[in-house]
Amino acid sequence: MASRKADWSKRTANKTAGTTVSVADVVTMPTTPDVVWNRLENVPLVASCLPGLDPATLVAVGPNAFSARMTNTVMGISAHWDLSATINPEPDLRVLNVVLKGDDSRLNMKLDGIAVVHVRPDDTGRALLDYTANLRVDGSMAAMGGPVIRSILGDAIAQFVAVVGGQDRVRRSLFARLRERAADWWARVTRKTRTSMATKGTP
């Protein structure tokens, strides 16, 4: 665990002020470590787990490297990321390392993330996913604070766990659904305000 924190500290040492969120957990999977690891070694499958990623834009640029477009919306602010992902499986250790970098030049936003996933058996032979994940956002979305960004990271992890557990779909979290409703409401209010101002300005 110390090495993971050390690696993340090096990556963020020279960053400007922003929001950083870290999560860690151990999840029991309803299948064996062999099955889970076989899915984790499917690098395109892992890459497709990112919430908001447009599957049509997912392109392999190397053996374990991908580029894609990803959209996240928080309280009316939509970030359209030019995303690069490096996903490196270590079969001998059954460890998966994920590095993300994203850029939204329109909003002048940056995304920097790293995750480490370790597959191991529990006492009954079922698979345990032991993971740590860190996500940093600089720019407009960072102002929304840690809780909202944590929910985005949580949705990504939920999707990831569902896919490697063999589920085709994962039910969105309550917070994610509420966040979308709030964003829709804010968009309607903003649109109504702009329309009203335009009407008043018409001679």
From TrEMBL:
The UniProt entry, under InterPro entries, shows: CO_DH_gsu, START-like_dom_sf
Quote the Pfam families the UniProt record gives.
COXG (PF06240)
For this protein, the record's SUPFAM superfamilies field holds: Bet v1-like
What is the name of this protein?
Carbon monoxide dehydrogenase
